[in-house]
Amino acid sequence: MKNKILFVLILLFLISGSIPLQSQQSFTLKKDIVVAEGEVQDNIVTFGGVVHINGRVKEGVIAFGGEVIITGEVEDVVLGFGSIITLEPTARISGDVVSIGGTLIKKPGCIVEGDTIYFRTSEDITKLFEEGLRGFLSVSLIPLLLIIKLISVFIWFLLALLITAFFPRQISYASAQIRKSFWPIFGTGFLSIIIFSGLIIFSALLSLVLIGIPILFALIIIGFVIKIFGRVILFYFFGESLINAFGKGKISPLLAVVLGLILVS
Question: Which of 39, 11, 43 is nearest to 26 (CA)?
Fold first, then answer.
């Protein structure tokens, strides 16, 4: 566990200073969404709602529960957890279609240019995604530790999806730098860890005279953000490596992060 956290911090201390900031694509986070014919949307994330896509989505569609009905075009991944995904005859998906714990309906005539991944889970696991926290608490046969683990993985999953939706280019760039210059990144990050630890200790000592309290809180927040961002980069790195191992060329950042999360968890 300590080694994993150390590696995450090492990556982020270097990457946070080397990733170029670019304009980000927006994404929609709503319950019920309708993309009308002729309309163009970037990313779509929905929790338990109904999504009708008659137009075009430039990036991905992510659904937790609910239903996704596609008659138009999605240029990236369609990802559903405990969702009903229906691809009408006119639907065209340029990326992958991934359904975990839900129902996938592909009608004749629909086009999926990427891979179709369909995991049928047990009724209890599906219930977890469809009913949220109530679903977790209602499954009495699952031990408490497993419930805590599932909640932890689910929270990390949400954070990973949101960060990937906001910073897809930065995540991809950071992963490429790990592969390209691992040891320079490792060395620079290790020195940054030492400096950061020293600042934490120094601010903790200053807290005795009150002036160090805001500094300490600021460093804690910075460290938390670094941990989240770094772990998502690791998810992408491992997911991308896994997909490349199977000879697949172009990949979706969202799919790479999800696979990396499954692999690491």
Answer: 43
Mean pLDDT of 149-153: 74
State how far the Cα of 71 lies from the Cα of 15, in Å rounded to an integer.
40
| 78, amino acid identity | V
The domain spans of the chain are: 2-19+168-264, 25-166
Weakest-pLDDT range from 118-127, 151-160, 219-228: 118-127
Read off the tokens for 143.
């031990």
Q: Identify each DSSP E strand in the chain by its residue range.
A: 27-30, 33-35, 40-41, 43-47, 50-53, 56-57, 61-64, 67-70, 73-74, 78-81, 84-87, 92-93, 97-100, 103-106, 111-112, 116-119
- pLDDT at position 80 is 85
**Exposure string for 116-143, b = 16+ CB within 10 A, e = fewer:** ebeeeeeeebbbbbbbbeebbeebeebe
